[in-house]
């Protein structure tokens, strides 16, 4: 007799009351397994910058963008309530496309109309915001698909197990499962094509022009998704030819933001200026002049919200810091260029001469970096100007965590731990790739350090860079576009001095960060190492010997760098995607009970990469020596 027959007969013999209890327990066990599988799937999809770009986008000003629901001619309501396919939001740089997309994702009226489209089906909504100045995941197809799939699995865990490939459900092998773009496409399309799931999905995807690879490929990817019967998309982009060819008069609906925001911009200007006590005082004495200034700002804006934001900030600074008169305000407004490029050029030219060298170096490093910069970047650049070899000479500070046991057998802290105890909470620490690490007990001194850095960036970089949370980013994609113009690059390189190599400077910065207190785990060390290794093919020939010296320092300190942290790169799918396939040891997290010791840097894939680079640069004999 088969085992399952025996179990069945045994179950039949149980009294009915007990049978109900057993059935309920079995049901709960099944639910538990489903939850566990979905949690593992979510963990496999998650990446460090999952929501950071969305959080950076300014919320819509009160009572703005309501026209998208009120004006039927725009077609958004009709598309949301009745149509499939793609709705295209386009507009000038800085016109407010991202803010509008975030508004739609968070606006209850959007969901009211989408539920009419979904009918008797359930409704799922997912979103993604591309960010070209951000991290690799924020500007790639992999990041897009993972974020969309993550949102769906969170909303519909049971349905996820029907659509996602079985190998990603097995909690025993999930730790080794590595999502490929093909896997992600198949999973999303499975959701969109399986009408038996009883669910319809709408995706909001912002900033297609910020995608870092071939835009034609992205258009094709979105086109495939839009053809799924249970799925539709609202996308936004600049009016580039590649998107105009794909969507102009071909999408199920479209609108140009800058043509619709005049009323919003006027409301925003009036509210911001009328909230200023000095401006209200001027309105009492010079009401007509104040009205003309408000109207003039709106006229010069040409539908570009970002320009308005920057100009208002400058005008309000003059009012509050300098007690500007109405005549000075009028003169300021007349002098402002009426384009973003013109505005950025004005800010760039007005940086004080004493700061220009450091300013140029900070901006060039920001352009060279594939990720947002850490808060301490201005400090590192200043140290580099005094001593180009500062990073190699820096001492290592160990990572300290409350409640963490000492590695010493006598329970006393190590030298590194002593150094870290005083500094581990010195400030909310900045992870690579824009990750923000908050510390609950950040002191007032730490907050002052953040503000001091903000003032430093304002003085040296104008409105081109800003501090966002605990990282330094470009104010907007348009700021990066401005700096990448050949004449501006030429000026910055001349100011920075001819021998300055931004990629070498970035490598030094990464080494300084590795040695500092903030990396709480070896994962952060691994991310920094990945950035360093990416610089090899970008470093100028004249800088290669200095780059090799930095790699030698990393290799020399590798074991200690990782040992002081809680565990290197296990579980970080962005970094280890092909490591295991290549047969190299991945640095594992140290077990709580110490029953399984983690691997060391010396036999890790990172060590192989660093030493391979050194051999390519003719430093193999130095490796043997140390």
From TrEMBL:
Q: Keyword Transferase, does the record have it?
A: no
Q: What is this protein called?
A: NACHT domain-containing protein
Q: In terms of domain of life, where is this protein from? A: Eukaryota
- Is the Transmembrane helix keyword given for this protein? no
Location of the Nephrocystin 3-like N-terminal domain: 64-238
- What InterPro entries would the database entry show? DUF7791, NPHP3-like_N, P-loop_NTPase
Q: Which UniProt keywords apply?
A: Repeat
Which residue range or ranges hold the DUF7791 domain? 445-517
Q: Name the lineage.
A: Eukaryota, Fungi, Dikarya, Ascomycota, Pezizomycotina
Region (Disordered) spans which residues?
A: 398-441
| Transmembrane regions | none
